[in-house]
Specification:
Layout (H helix, E strand, L loop, with lengths): L2 H23 L5 H9 L4 E6 L4 E4 L18 H4 L2 H15 L4 E8 L5 E13 L2 E12 L1 H23 L2 E7 L4 E7 L1 H5 L3 H15 L6 H12 L6 E8 L5 E13 L5 E10 L1 H37 L4 H24 L5 E2 H9 L7 E4 L4 E2 L1 H20 L9 E9 L6 E9 L12 H13 L2 E8 L2 E9 L17
Parallel strand pairs: 12-14
Antiparallel strand pairs: 1-2, 1-5, 3-4, 4-5, 6-7, 6-10, 8-9, 9-10, 11-13, 14-15, 15-17, 16-17
Helix pairs in contact: 9-10, 10-11, 10-12, 11-12, 12-13
Length: 489
């Protein structure tokens, strides 16, 4: 053995001797005090001897006894609940050999009720005192275990709720200025994960709120302070996502914790992304405004058609036929636009619908499918119907040999593309220019000028009427709110 090792052993031996001397110098706990302490313990304590008997059981152990406490002198097999006796019978030999035992079990007590317990078995004696049995401490942890299970179940439920609910849920600590807990659909609502929001703290949260909506947070906090617990306060705000764009969010909150003065210092909130709903509301408002505009325009068109038809020198039956035909043409154009949400229509479809009531085999058509806005589509549909009606009554379609050639093209050499359309009749009766201009002529010339921002000419050539229409093609905006700028723009 080295000199260093011998020196260390000597030092340790001296320290042990010193501690033993200190312990022997202390007064021993008197038996009365020890009994009182054990007798009043809230957990069960029982002293078992090595001969299979009970030396003492405190009142708290009564649940596990078939004999009244303290059961002194009773046999263990007779005094202990069977389930407990089976466990202790297996543990006692080890305790008599100087080994301690500890376990958590579920056992039936003396009445047959199942309880959760923590069991400690230690040798009775040791050192200079021979081991004569075992001391058993029994802690009833049924309520604690039930509470733990309840907590775990609630945590599982909350986790499932956070998984299936469309909201981001959080607790915000206004005294610390940070989120205390975050869960749920945070990526969907805020564009950041729960861990990122917690790590970013109050600075990140505040940076996400649109400056115009920031005051709502303080206003809501004051409302919650004044309201009774359980009252929900909500507001809508815009939240900036990682890409810099803002989305609308509905934030609903209740008071979660108050300070001694009653002021709310923590709130529990559920935040829902309502951006699509807000966009839909905006779209609905635009559609309603557009509908109002279209209804007014339609009524004005009907009023004009009725007034001009009644001014013509026709019999009542003739006026009814003309008026009905023009209304049908207007309605047909409306049908085309309605199918396309009044966002415009293709010229090919407008031509097809306008000429459907007539002998289409005698009307040759050619030209590209040009997109027209709603106003232009209505005007051109009415114009084509008027040309076809006149051709059927007085022109190329009024006999068996006449024909019509309808052609159009788009000229791209101007700042805006220009539509050039020509209606050319041939093979009909000789054409004579009318002595006065009727509604049809005014519809073609004035209507094209006002509704199409273009021009229309009528050439009453002897071999057939020729109508030429030119109009600038304005861009046709689609009513798509998803393409609209963000509210913060």
């Amino acid at each position: 053995m080295s000199e260093e090792l011998r020196t260390e052993n000597a030092r340790l031996a001296a320290r042990v001797a010193e501690l033993e001397a200190q312990l022997e110098a202390k007064p021993a706990i008197d038996r009365v005090s020890l009994f009182r302490m054990t007798n009043n313990a809230p957990w069960g304590v029982i002293a078992l001897n090595g001969e299979g008997g009970v030396d003492y059981a405190n009142p708290a152990f009564q649940r596990w006894l078939t004999k009244p406490a303290p059961a002194i002198g009773e046999r263990q097999a007779d005094a202990l609940a069977p389930a407990l006796f089976t466990i202790l019978e297996a543990c006692l030999p080890a305790a008599l050999a100087g080994q301690a035992h500890e376990a958590e079990l579920r056992l039936r007590d003396a009445s047959g009720e199942t309880r959760d317990v923590r069991l400690h078995v230690v040798p009775r004696g040791g050192g200079k005192v021979p081991i004569s049995g075992a001391i058993v401490s029994l802690y009833d942890i049924t309520e604690t275990q039930a509470l733990d299970r309840s907590v775990r179940e609630n945590e599982a439920r909350l986790s499932h709720i956070n998984t299936v609910a469309p909201t981001a849920n959080y607790i915000f600590d206004f005294e610390a200025g940070v989120p205390a807990w975050v869960a749920g659909r945070t990526e969907r609502v805020y564009g950041y994960s729960a861990d990122e929001l917690l790590a970013g703290g109050g600075d990140l949260i505040r940076s996400l709120i649109h400056p115009d909506d920031f005051a709502k947070v303080g206003q809501r906090l004051a409302q919650l302070t004044a309201a009774p617990d359980g009252d929900v306060r909500e507001f809508e705000l815009r939240v900036r996502h990682r890409d810099g764009g803002y989305r609308w969010v509905l934030d609903r909150a209740v008071a979660f914790e108050r300070n001694a003065q009653g002021r709310v210092v923590k709130t529990l909130s559920a935040a829902l992304d309502i951006d699509e709903r807000k966009r839909a509301e905006e779209r609905r408002t635009l559609l309603i405004n557009e509908l109002n505009h279209r209804v007014k325009n339609t009524l004005a068109s009907v009023q004009s058609i009725a007034r001009q038809t009644l001014r013509s020198a026709r019999t009542p039956d003739e006026m009814a036929d003309v008026f009905t035909g023009r209304l049908i043409a207007l309605a047909s154009a409306h049908d085309v636009l309605t199918r396309e949400n009044w966002e415009g229509a293709g010229l090919t479809k407008i031509v097809e619908v306008a000429l459907a009531p007539f002998d289409e085999r005698r009307i040759a058509r050619s030209g590209p499918d040009v997109r027209l806005d709603a106003r232009a589509a209505l005007a051109l549909g009415m114009a084509l119907h008027e040309l076809a009606t006149n051709a059927s009554k007085y022109g190329a379609l009024s006999n068996e040999t006449g024909a019509v050639r309808l052609a159009w093209r788009v000229r791209e050499d101007d700042a805006l593309p220009t539509l050039e359309l020509e209606w050319r009749e041939s093979g009909g009766p000789p054409v004579v220019a009318p002595k006065r201009r009727g509604f049809g002529s005014r519809l073609l010339t004035q209507g094209v000028r006002s509704e199409l921002n273009g021009a229309a000419t009528l050439d009453f050539a002897p071999d057939g009427l020729v109508c030429r229409i030119t109009a600038s093609l304005e861009p046709t905006p689609l009513l798509e709110l998803s393409q609209a700028p963000s509210p913060a723009s």
